[in-house]
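Shipment paperwork, digital attachment
Item: protein structure file
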Amino acid sequence: MYQDLRFGLRMLLKKPGFTAIAVLTLALGIGANTAIFSVVNAVLLQPLPYAKADELVSIYRTPGGEATWPFPPAAYLNLKSRNTVFTDIAALDNRGWPTTLTGWGEPSRLQGFKVSVNLFTLLGVTPQQGRAFLAEEDRPGANRVVVISYELWVRDFGGDPQLIGRSLNLNGDSYTVIGVTPADFRFYAKTDLWTPLAFTAADQNERNASYLELIGRRKSGVSFAQAGAEVEAISKEFFNNPKSEARSRIGLPQEMLTREVRPLLMLLVAAVGFVLLIACVNIANLLLARGSARRRELAIRSALGAGRLRVVRQLLVESAMLSLAGGSLGLLLANWGIKFLAGGLPEYLANTNSRVAMLRLDTMALGFTFALSMLTSFLFGLAPALHLSKVDLNEALKEGGRAAGARNRLLPALVIAEVALAMVVLVGGGLMIRSFWRLSHVNPGYEPEGVLTAQIDLSGVKYKELAQVTGFYQELLGRIAAIPGARYAGVINTLNVVNPFGIDEHPPLPPEKQPLAQINQVSADYFKATGIPLRAGRFFDNRDAKGAQPAVIIDETLARRELSGEDPIGKHINFWNTSREIVGVVGAAKYWSPSSEPAPHIYLSYLQENWRSMSLRVRAQSDDPMKLAALVRAELAAIDKNQPIHSFKALEEQVSEQIAPQRFTTTLMAGFAALAALLAAVGIYGVMSFMVAERTREIGVRMALGAQTGNVMRMVLRRGMVLAVAGVMIGLTASFALARAISGLLFGVQPTDPATLVAITLLLLVVALVSCLIPARRATKVDPLDALRHE
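Attachment content:
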């Protein structure tokens, strides 16, 4: 083995060009696979970083499909006290607890959540500093305590251990810091601090307001099915509504968290696997071509007594050395690739899973890279080794080696396989690119260009009443509208509520059959600031103040579904036990995803019903709305310097972020497709160059007998293009299966889109033609006298 290693190293160094190409090709394939594996391992394979994570389940209600609903407090307390399958159940208020911190420099906005006091113990999380909540702190008056995140502790308080036991002014109230979470703790969403839910007597009896996300830990020996059956039975008895289709279910937290990205990651795994296979086929081609030049050497070895197994071992050792070198370089590329991939993953994954937030090369990735290196050496090295070890001593030791071409039938087969694999990857990349292009050109229903957005979470004793909140926002909007460079300013509440409704002029429907609509409070100029067009009626104005006739504006989706063929203006919508007159119809807006149809929407005047946390919209006169950020901040400080404003962002950027996962996946798929095409081109070029070199004598004889350069070029091109066409046809057939598999990821494009298939076919054939042209031109330069003299 030592002799094999030493000789293999000499042979690799003897051909530095071949070695460099082979190592770089393998590094690209292995590095890409290692990077993708690291992401998949962190997101899908490794359990969530909690104690005995396999025992944890999410508990939710669903009307069917993938929609999930939270629980009301009374249902949660009932399930917690009556179940026999969980050691404990914890709850989190999904409305969040937007918090303003004052008294520590400039006022800052923090994201908090109210949770049941048993959350940290249920997850098996021990605070890094201080302690978790106590049972007695789960009641009003005793709940003025907070556990803060490690990130907040370091960022705002310098990691001061003396902070434990001190008070913080949050939303105008004093809270005592009792603990700091570990640096790697993530749960539900990006969070700065947690405080106990502390239900009041009214909360404990609340059956309608559903806002609690539940997580339970199964008892030892209790199966998933048993736990799910008991949750459904207890909840069904509690809600006691046989007409409702809603059911209570349990799910694995990790599967629910990753269900949106799982198909995208699986697509990338398949694509990067194909790229590695193409790289292996490419190296096998190079080894075969190089091995043919070593036939005399291998024949001499056999003549001196080396058995076939000994020759195969020598060739496999060389392949393994190439793989290890490629794997080592691939690790460096993977380290960069992981950083790129981490930046492209949806933000919520990093906010809820510390393995994703702290993504890096680890021991598992190193083991995967080593195993992959060994596997690739076997994949690309075995076939050439077996092929080259079959030595015909008489022919191989002859000077000319006329039978060389017959012994290389494996080369054409490998070229066909390489082109077919490249075709599959290119079709997948082409479909994703075409899908993303259509997605990025969807009209969202508003005009995001030139609009500044920001978040305001109004808090403090000054804003306990609706009139105080309304007065604040009226003064702020008036000031902002007067800023030079601002055209319109409006606000919309940040809490998105979906609620059933009825139309007074229509026959009444039972609650379970009432349609649903998203409900938001907005200011009068919100629609002008956002660029949502008016279809009928009017926008809100001062007529829609507190105490006036309750008014609403609906979008055209609701009007089309529920009031088709009718004039909506003047009709009345009933929800929250109040009848409201429709005064306007506006365009449908796609707030969340451009790939889905806009949901029915109802807008309320914020003068009549308000929410303290609002999203600001300011339409600028220039193309760069971010220039207004400092001026807006100054106007807010002039009204109340203790109220922070945060998350300044261009609305156009927010729209772009909606399709960030698709953009990320499409970019990677396009990169893999380009790499596949490049590798296929290199493979075809290498094989055709070798075939021309092998047939130098034959070409010389043909030209001596009168063959023209055009005849020689056509002969070489025909040979290469026949292989390319065969590979394209096989790959085209295989790509139909891939296209069907990714159909759920496509938007506005059929899996068998003719334009994409034709374009990719022509592209790959052009690549093959260009790859054949250089060897073909070289063949026409053969001097017949030189070719025959060597014979």
